[in-house]
Design goal:
InterPro entries: P-loop_NTPase (IPR027417), Phage_terminase_lsu (IPR006437), Terminase_L_N (IPR035412), Viral_DNA_packaging_terminase (IPR052380). This is PBSX family phage terminase large subunit. This protein is of the alpha/beta class and about 425 residues long. Helices cover about 35% and strands about 20% of the residues. It has helices at about 10-15, 15-20, 35-50, 70-75, 130-140, 160-165, 190-200, 205-210, 225-230, 285-300, 320-330, 340-350, 365-370, 390-405; strands at about 25, 50-55, 85, 90-95, 100-105, 120-125, 150-155, 175-180, 235, 245-250, 260-265, 270-280, 300-305, 335, 355-360, 375, 380-385. The strands form 3 sheets. An 8-stranded mixed β-sheet has the order 3-4-5-2-6-7-1-8, sandwiched between helices. A 7-stranded mixed β-sheet has the order 9-15-12-11-10-13-14. Strand 4 and strand 5 form a beta hairpin. The protein is globular, with a radius of gyration of 24 Å.
Length: about 425
């Protein structure tokens, strides 16, 4: 193997067993060399002793979307071609070390058990990983003694799950390292020149792209203007459930995708968004149980449950629709019209003008709405009309289903229902 000189900021990886840490989070802007250095560490460590190394990200539809090619390139650069065998979907070492690759989005608590035994887990592009994915991944991989979890990311929003829970928060089990292009001796001079040019011309964008400073709202965000107004008016705060008002829910139903549920109360023209729930690959009985639990714990008095039109589709094996299944579970669903994404988007824009969000209970749903964005056309350097279908679209579609219905409602104002406490505000981290 060729000599490998380790930059100072990456040395904690090589002293993992003496650090007494579980998580290593590397964040920053473009050109910092995070992925190269982490790949080199994994290859060196995998050659020194047997490891089972999981390389994952939120969405991986094919091996091309993984770090498989990066690792292959670094194997050659380090002179480890005789030690590692690069296969189509995995990489194996002569000592039994194996690298395997996976997306996280469509895994469940049961299916993710295949990751057990991973001694090292690398989460690449960790800024896109959902809180749900982390909740099912981490308990599975930490069962292995002396394991480590490496996260690398270019932050997008301060509310990104990894940034909010591992970078902002001071944790005893975590090493957090920020690294940028000006600390990378191998950063191409062309990239340095581009960074310095942007620094002079557009400092805010420079801070985000090259220094890794999170943006409040994602690029191309569909509801950017609406959430800027919501922030100016401090409408993300503590919203107490009002027992005098009924609760409405709106849904996006997933089969292989997540199912998302919003909980609303309506006070005149004011929409109080009091709760949010999302899970993946669970039966409808699970979501009925969630409604039951919310009713028992918080006293939610349900009025209507708004669902998309495909709830009426019949299961091919049973011949029973999800609408019928929910009815048997005690919840009659209001089937929506067959409308396109632009109808939900326009309805959402209208309703957001009157929405107040509970900062804690809705934080993951708010993150989805803020990250719901349009696809970017790299060739034309402009955003397409098509919204991106990713983790953020489920919560956003569910909200849109609620907006389509709630906007039509004319609710009487109850004298017993005070407005939300405008004086108290909880800022999202």
């Amino acid at each position: 193997m060729k000599e490998k000189r380790v930059p100072h900021k990456f040395k904690p990886l090589y002293t993992h067993l003496t650090n007494n840490k579980l998580f290593y989070v590397y964040h920053g802007g473009r050109g910092g060399g995070k992925s190269w250095e982490i790949a080199d560490y994994l290859l060196v460590e995998g050659a020194s002793k047997k490891h089972r190394i999981l390389c994952c990200r939120e969405i991986q539809k094919s091996i091309k979307q993984s770090v498989h090619q990066l690792l292959s390139d670094r194997i050659e650069a380090l002179g480890l071609g005789a030690f590692y065998q690069v296969l189509d979907t995995e990489i194996r070492g002569l000592n039994g070390t194996e690298f395997f690759f996976s997306g996280l989005q469509n895994h469940t608590v049961d299916s993710i058990k295949s990751f057990e035994g991973a001694t090292i887990t690398w989460i690449e592009e960790a800024q896109t990983v959902s809180s749900y994915s982390l909740q099912i991944l981490i308990p599975t991989v930490v069962r292995t003694a002396n394991c480590m979890i490496i996260m690398s990311m270019n932050p997008k929003l301060p509310s990104d799950a990894v940034y909010a829970d591992y970078v902002v928060v001071d944790r005893d089990d975590t090493v957090v390292v920020q690294i940028n292009y000006d600390e990378n001796k191998n950063c191409p001079p062309e990239l340095v020149a581009l960074a310095e040019q942007m620094k002079a011309q557009d400092y805010d964008n420079y801070e985000h792209i090259y220094l890794g400073k999170p943006k409040e709202i994602a690029d191309g965000a569909i509801y950017k203007n609406e959430f800027e107004q919501i922030k100016r008016e401090n409408r993300i705060c503590k919203i107490a459930h009002d027992s005098n008002l009924q609760v409405y829910t709106s849904w996006d139903l997933g089969i292989l995708d997540p199912t998302a549920i919003w909980f609303f109360q309506v006070y005149g023209k004011e929409i109080r968004v009091i709760d949010y729930y999302e899970a993946n690959n669970e039966p409808l009985a699970h979501y009925a149980r969630i409604l039951d639990e919310r009713k028992q714990q918080f006293g939610y008095n349900y009025s209507k449950h708004f669902a998309p039109h495909d709830i009426a589709a019949r299961d091919l094996s049973s011949g029973v629709s999800r609408e019928q299944t929910m009815a048997k579970l005690g919840y009659r669903m209001e089937k929506g019209a067959k409308l396109g994404p632009e109808d939900r988007i326009e309805a959402t824009r209208q309703m957001l003008k009157n929405c107040w969000f509970d900062a804690e209970k809705c934080k993951y749903g708010i993150r989805a709405l803020q990250n719901y964005r349009r696809e970017f056309n790299d060739k034309l350097e402009q955003f397409k009309a098509t919204p991106v279908h990713d983790w953020a679209s489920h919560g956003s579609d569910a909200f849109g289903e609620g907006a389509l219905n709630i906007n039509k409602m004319q609710m009487p104002t109850s004298k017993n229902s005070p407005p939300p406490p405008r004086a108290t505000r909880t800022t999202l981290s």
